């Protein structure tokens, strides 16, 4: 066998590290950081280093599975798709399109195929029962940006490479490597920030490894971030520190009135932070030459996630740091056209059937999927498609959802593993190995701390007869659209490309405005449908060659010539290009967001005072699906309950002791790990563990020691505005066993 070297972008987390992968024949023999990668400069983490083990995991499914008489059987791809066609038709015939739901999980944004096909799949299923991991994650940020900037997908990122002061809440990038902020070697960038004289402040109920790197760490009581951020806004006004905002911003006076209800002295005890410390943060933020506030999971999967997400940006505006170097800036993705006119954002265009929860960005809250499956009546969900998702592990009150999945009449999963979710499937359609798949980050190029683009061609060809993830999804689209399991996929491609071209030639400001799509179509290059879609998106994008308009501009060929990626430079101010509000201004105090403030005020008056549970992430883990790699799960058990040493003493709990964690929804047993790194009154568990269900095929993961924290998270508590699950600040009781 011959040895080959491949430069690829790691698709596992949001950091987009460049990897140098060595293959001996079709086996990965070595993975290291690509020192020539223009963005990651050789950085790699343990997950990336073990990408080979993940790639050739023997438990990865090599052919589709169909469940017959309760047992999975390997079938051919044709049989599997025929089964999908039959099963879907049967459910639609009996109950109609709304009886079919679609859930798209985290990897469906990390693959190249997901962002291209998921929207089309949702459309062709013709159902409003669309769910994603976003409502277990970042949806609050979409909602706040939707109202403030008019576009839920224009999310400013902290310009960490140039800022003088970073205030970070509910994020632990030393373990997670960052989120909604693509910054390979985030820890190194924080060190550089400090080395150039800047300041890092971390607000977290735990003293994390990121906090250890920071100048200042403030313990905050879970769920109190919105109150804390309001108190910062209050202080800026109260001490005359807010800048004179430009004319493009309105709503300052209204925000000031709201903030007047949150003096630091009033919220201090709820936050667990002294009023003087809150005021000092506001002063430091305003005094820094440039500064930026950044909030992540700890602030979004919380009861006031949308308010916190909003106030993060409000602070960036009021300190003069929005849209300027060193502040919060909008990346310009090479593959996202900037000429598209967007309709002003709103939510609640429809509501969920059972709980009446508003639609947000075209989807319904994952926290209510179990309701929709369990509750009889017109529109009851009887079939489910999942793409790269493991909701039976990741959703709040996951055991309830798992039981509901078991009750479905038909379920199709596009997933490489037989796991907690897919064991309930009728059909499992496994995508191929990572090394057999092309890669481009349609999603993450929107969140880079630099503008960048890189494409990875498959390192290995697909085995004969095996479809790539794009082909799997395209087939599902054709089946859902009634074209049948054996329809010609080129028809779909031409429809998708034709649709994008037709819009582009009609859009003023597009590089191809007024041209003829028939003249443009033959210019699109690429080996497969994903590559051609990428080529088209790059050509129409902000750096694109525009079908000849800017000959030196980007197209797929440029990325092919640059296997270490193309650096498109530091972020540049582009607020006016981004704004999509009805009046073209930044709405600093949207009525929809202001309407949620009374709920925060009543929470302040009547908040949970007992023990609350929060989450945490571990560097060697990635949500629920990387526990099958031996090298990532050896060593000490990481699924332990962090509990403050004083609390542990009061409960007579010692290190390694089994404890029971109980909530409204259920209870789990885990090992305790008393530590002074977590504040009193708070306990923490990582998610994604507990692989002991019958019938799953994860030989390593099933032997790991851990429980699913989502047994005790509560699907009835939501961030109301976004429908996002609350994983941080769940009232629990802890008892020694
Ligand atoms: N190694 C690894 N990397 C990952 C993942 C993984 O599972 N493992 N998952 C990926 C995914 S899907 C995502 S979304 C990102 C998430 O990336 P991050 O947002 O950085 O996620 P976490 O590391 O969980 O950090 C969240 C922090 O919030 C704190 N926190 C909890 N409750 C509160 C609160 O009420 N207020 C405040 N201020 N803080 C609170 C927690 O203690 C924790 O330190 O990571 C991605 N990267
Ligand atoms: N308690 C608690 N719960 C949480 C969180 C928390 O912090 N605390 N975090 C939440 C967050 S931020 C997120 S993003 C969600 C994640 O929620 P999900 O996306 O539902 O769950 P994952 O664990 O990411 O599962 C990913 C699935 O994709 C499959 N997969 C892996 N690679 C591929 C691929 O290339 N193609 C396809 N089609 N499938 C693939 C895996 O086998 C697995 O089944 O979890 C949420 N749940
Ligand atoms: S930090 Fe993320 S992108 Fe980089 S090597 Fe690790 S898992 Fe891959
Ligand atoms: Mo996430």
TrEMBL record:
User: InterPro entries from the entry?
Assistant: Asp_de-COase-like_dom_sf, MoPterin_dinucl-bd_dom, Mopterin_OxRdtase, Mopterin_OxRdtase_4Fe-4S_dom, Prok_molybdopt-oxidoreductase
Which superkingdom is the protein from? Bacteria
**Annotated source species:** Kibdelosporangium persicum
Organism lineage string: Bacteria, Bacillati, Actinomycetota, Actinomycetes, Pseudonocardiales
**Domain 4Fe-4S Mo/W bis-MGD-type, which positions?**
3-59
Q: What keywords tag this UniProt record?
A: 4Fe-4S, Iron, Iron-sulfur, Metal-binding, Oxidoreductase
Pfam families, alphabetized: Molybdop_Fe4S4, Molybdopterin, Molydop_binding
Note the PANTHER family from the entry: NADPH-FE(3+) OXIDOREDUCTASE SUBUNIT ALPHA, RESPIRATORY NITRATE REDUCTASE
Q: What is this protein called?
A: Anaerobic selenocysteine-containing dehydrogenase
């Amino acid at each position: 066998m011959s040895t080959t070297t491949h430069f690829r972008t790691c698709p596992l987390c949001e950091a987009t590290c460049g990897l140098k992968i060595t293959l001996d024949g079709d086996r990965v023999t070595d993975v290291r950081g690509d020192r020539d990668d223009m963005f990651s400069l050789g950085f790699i983490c343990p997950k990336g280093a073990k990408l080979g083990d993940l790639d050739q995991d023997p438990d990865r499914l090599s052919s589709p599975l169909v469940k017959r008489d309760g047992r999975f059987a390997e079938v051919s791809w044709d049989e599997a798709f025929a089964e999908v066609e039959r099963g879907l038709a049967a459910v639609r015939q009996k109950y109609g399109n709304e009886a079919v739901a679609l859930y798209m999980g985290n990897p469906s944004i990390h693959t190249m195929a997901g962002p291209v096909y998921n929207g089309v799949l949702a459309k062709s299923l013709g159902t409003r029962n669309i769910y994603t991991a976003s409502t277990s994650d970042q949806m609050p940020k979409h909602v706040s940006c939707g109202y403030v900037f008019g576009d839920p997908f224009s999310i400013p990122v902290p310009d960490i490479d140039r800022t003088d002061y970073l205030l970070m809440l509910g994020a632990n990038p030393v373990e997670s490597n960052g989120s909604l902020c693509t910054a390979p070697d985030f820890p190194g960038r924080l060190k550089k920030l400090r080395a150039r004289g800047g300041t890092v402040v971390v607000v977290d109920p735990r003293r994390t490894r990121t906090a250890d790197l920071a100048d200042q760490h403030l313990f905050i009581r879970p769920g109190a971030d919105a109150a804390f951020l309001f108190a910062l806004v209050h202080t800026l006004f109260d001490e005359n520190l807010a800048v004179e905002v430009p004319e493009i911003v309105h709503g300052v006076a209204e925000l000031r009135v709201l903030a007047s209800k949150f003096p630091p002295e009033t919220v201090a005890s709820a936050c667990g932070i002294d009023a003087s410390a809150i005021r000092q943060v506001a002063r430091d933020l305003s005094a820094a030459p440039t500064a930026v506030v950044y909030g992540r999971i700890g602030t979004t999967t919380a009861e006031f996630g949308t308010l916190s997400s909003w106030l993060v940006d409000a602070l960036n505006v009021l300190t003069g740091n929005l849209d300027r170097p060193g502040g919060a800036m909008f990346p310009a993705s090479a593959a996202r056209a900037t000429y598209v006119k967007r309709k002003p954002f709103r939510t609640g265009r429809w509501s969920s059937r059972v709980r009446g929860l508003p639609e947000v960005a075209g989807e319904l809250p994952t926290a209510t999927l179990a309701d929709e499956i369990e509750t009889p009546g017109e529109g009851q969900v009887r079939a489910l498609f999942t793409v790269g998702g493991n909701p039976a592990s990741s959703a709040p009150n996951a055991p309830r959802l798992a039981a509901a999945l078991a009750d479905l009449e038909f379920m199709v999963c596009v997933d490489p593993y037989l796991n907690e979710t897919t064991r309930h499937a009728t059909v499992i359609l496994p995508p191929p190995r990572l090394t057999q798949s092309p890669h481009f980050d349609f999603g993450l190029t929107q969140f880079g701390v630099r503008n960048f683009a890189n494409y990875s061609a498959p390192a290995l060809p697909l085995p004969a007869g095996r479809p790539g993830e794009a082909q799997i999804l395209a087939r599902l689209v054709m089946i859902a659209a009634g074209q049948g399991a054996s329809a010609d996929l080129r028809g779909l491609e031409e429809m998708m490309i034709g649709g994008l071209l037709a819009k582009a030639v009609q859009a003023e400001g597009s590089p191809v405005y007024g041209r003829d799509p028939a003249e443009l179509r033959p210019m699109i290059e690429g080996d497969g449908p994903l590559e051609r879609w990428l080529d088209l998106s790059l050509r129409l994008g902000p750096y694109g060659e525009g079908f000849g308009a800017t000959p030196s501009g980007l197209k797929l060929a440029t990325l092919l010539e640059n296997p270490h990626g193309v650096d498109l430079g530091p972020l540049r101010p582009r607020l006016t290009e981004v704004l999509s509000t009805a009046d073209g201004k930044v709405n600093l105090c949207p009525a929809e967001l202001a309407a949620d403030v009374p709920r925060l005020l009543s929470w302040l008056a009547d908040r949970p005072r007992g023990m609350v549970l929060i989450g945490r992430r571990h560097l060697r883990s990635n949500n629920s699906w990387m526990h099958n790699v031996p090298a990532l799960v050896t060593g000490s058990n990481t699924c332990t309950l962090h509990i403050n040493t004083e609390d542990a003493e009061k409960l007579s709990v010692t290190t390694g002791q089994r404890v029971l964690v109980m909530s409204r929804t259920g209870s789990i047993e885990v090992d305790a790990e008393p530590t002074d790194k977590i504040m009193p009154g708070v306990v923490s568990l990582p998610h994604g563990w507990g692989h002991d269900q019958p019938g799953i095929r994860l030989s390593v993961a099933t032997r790991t020691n851990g429980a699913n924290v989502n047994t005790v998270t509560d699907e009835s508590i939501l961030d109301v505005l976004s429908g996002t699950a609350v994983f941080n600040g769940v009232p629990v009781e802890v008892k020694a066993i």
